[in-house]
Amino acid sequence: METLYLGIVIFLFMLAIFDLLVGVSNDAVNFMNSAVGAKVARYRTIIIVAAVGVFAGAILSNGMMDIARHGIFQPANFSFYEIMCILLAVMVTDVVLLDVFNTLGLPTSTTVSMVFELLGGTFILAILKIIGDETGLLSLGDMMNTEKALSVIMGIFLSVAIAFIAGTLVQYISRIIFSFNYKKHLSWTIGIFGGISVTSLSYFVLIKGLKSAPFMSAESLAWIDQNTTLLVAGCFVFFTLLMQILHWCKVNVFRIIVLLGTFALALAFAGNDLVNFIGVPLAGFSAYTDYVANSNGAGIHDFMMSSLMSSAKTPAIFLFASGIIMVYALATSKKAKNVIKTSVDLARQEEGDEMFGSSALARTIVRRATAINEFMVKVIPAGMRRWIDSRFNKDEVILENGAAFDMVRAAVNLVLSGLLIIIGTTMKLPLSTTYVTFIVAMGSSLADRAWGRESAVYRITGMLSVIGGWFITAFVAFTICALVTAIMFYTSFVGMFIFICVAVFLLVRSNIKYSKKEKAEQQDDTFKRMMASKDKAEVLSLLRLHVKETLTDYINYTEQAYMQVTDGFINEDLKQLKKVMSSTDDQKKMLKKRRRKEILGLRRIPIPIAIEKNTWFHLGSNSCEQMLYCLKRICEPCKEHVDNNFNPISKDCIAEFLPIREELCQLMDRTQTVIENNNYAEADDILVKGDALKNKISALRKQQMNRMQEADSTSLKASMVYLNILQESQELVSIWRHLLRASRFFQGDYVPQEAQMLSLTE
């Protein structure tokens, strides 16, 4: 029996290793997004700074482990078997849940997942124990630490409101002081700003953080408590002078603050969130050692876990090993970059590709905010408005090459987030680092006017999607863990073994699928280079390349889908028709994103060229859209016909249609090749043959209508669908002929004139 539970404890630690790897991938967004978004240093340098902070935080973390031991449940009223059911269910649910969110590229909260998993597992067992209690003396309060659980939940969700308000106000004040052209408005303010920032971080990291360090003696802690005010005042004076001197020495003080803030936030993350990764396995290990040492022959259902009521004394070796694993995960994780990208894109200062669409709620919020802004414009005096606007002049923004926002905002994000998180840590209240850092970044981007009229609806939708994901995390974590715990409770080792196998299988499958997805996805380097370039000639060249890729991709997709849908109708393959319907919807969404990117590129080229190319660009883009609608109009009646098991199309119709289809596809292949090679020598011949093909299809339509007059009623439905295919095929030929013309005039034929325009606008 003991050997089986030793195996479970070992598996808990194995899951803890996976949890550390997955959790750090998810939470890297918390302490790296500001440094990465502002491009304060190379990615490798940022990783090193964050890794040092993570390792230091892991070594100093200890007091927070009590949350997993007795923060949620009352261990004195649970047996060893029941505690092991809860802890194993928590780890199985946690690892899989976090890996799913990482794969989707959405930041979620390790704190929320752990707390709600513990709540779910404890709640279901508490209910089962109360139902089975013959004495009727047990209550939910005896089973769960309801007061502590409520304070933890309130702390987590209140942090959202506090972080957003604080981020908005502090960033607004900071921008008023420094403006976007912050290098011209530093003078003496940078010393004070740097002094406040570094003193704040030093106070919480070195003074508050050291309280839980194992090497600090009681005398040292007492002396720090008695002289806190003096230490803070001394640090402020020293760091203010140091930052001012560094500024005079031409050192970028903001860069120092951001890197120091990254270190501090990484340290706070490790100290605050390490409990989310190893707290549960350590509680399981403690329960196992207590059972082995003190059970005296008592059964696993009778030995109660009163020992977990004591505070955790985590062996240093566990903290050291956890720090090593977290540093390794941070340095090697590819998923971390995916999650960071989501947060950085939502906080981006300039326009660019928007990851999210628009939603009804986001549109309502934007309309209300616009109305409030119009009211404020009427109330605030014109002179004050002009002065405020001068401090928010985006034309003067100083961005590093490829940066999403400037260093002023990065510094505010990190300093403010670090303060809020370490305050929560010192109060032993597990604030969500994800919630705090993400919402601070959203508040500061709002204060920086990064959400313009044309991007606000997308940014708000993205923010609501992420926050919605957090609430889904809480609900799913609670529900799944409760279900898993109940099954394990009733099925004993059989259920435990099955869920262990399921967890391993899901993790392996998830990582294999993510690797395949990563290889399959082509990064849109063309768009990134187009938005980063300051050379208008290069922007035009990259825009042409991007448009060419779009047109060729959609011609290629249309040809393949046309073949699939007609084959599906001829062969009565319902599965294939459904697949085409679904993929066409996906392509419509993708086309919308591509069009937005290309419109942003049009705005970055000289106005005369943009005006000249605008018509051809929209003709090409609309042609792509019309091809998709044409496919939809072909596919829907075919799918309905096959789904209803109506009579198939006649062999005569198939025989006359296939040559037409072959000719259409060959011409589309030629069109794709012409556009891909940017050589339009064959364009006139393709257009002529396309026009001839339209005439052939028109003749077939007339022939089919005559045939329908004489056909029996049993084949009428199939004949109607076939007639629709011919009509839409004729329309499809017209559409790609328009697309060929649009590409021809967008890509070339005016090179000398464009070169002259570019030389005039430089």
TrEMBL record:
One Gene Ontology term of the molecular function aspect: phosphate transmembrane transporter activity
SUPFAM superfamilies per record: PhoU-like
InterPro entries attached to this UniProt entry: Phos_transporter
Transmembrane helix keyword on record: yes
GO cellular component terms attached to this protein's record: membrane
Keyword annotations: Membrane, Phosphate transport, Transmembrane, Transmembrane helix, Transport
Source species, domain of life: Bacteria
Family matches, as Pfam families: PHO4
Regions that span the bilayer: 6-29, 41-60, 80-101, 113-132, 152-174, 186-207, 227-246, 253-271, 314-331, 410-427, 463-487, 493-512
Protein's membrane topology: Multi-pass membrane protein
Subcellular location: Membrane
Biological process, per Gene Ontology: phosphate ion transmembrane transport
Family: Belongs to the inorganic phosphate transporter (PiT) (TC 2.A.20) family.
The protein, known as: Phosphate transporter
Species whose genome carries this gene: Phocaeicola coprocola
Native organism taxonomy: Bacteria, Pseudomonadati, Bacteroidota, Bacteroidia, Bacteroidales
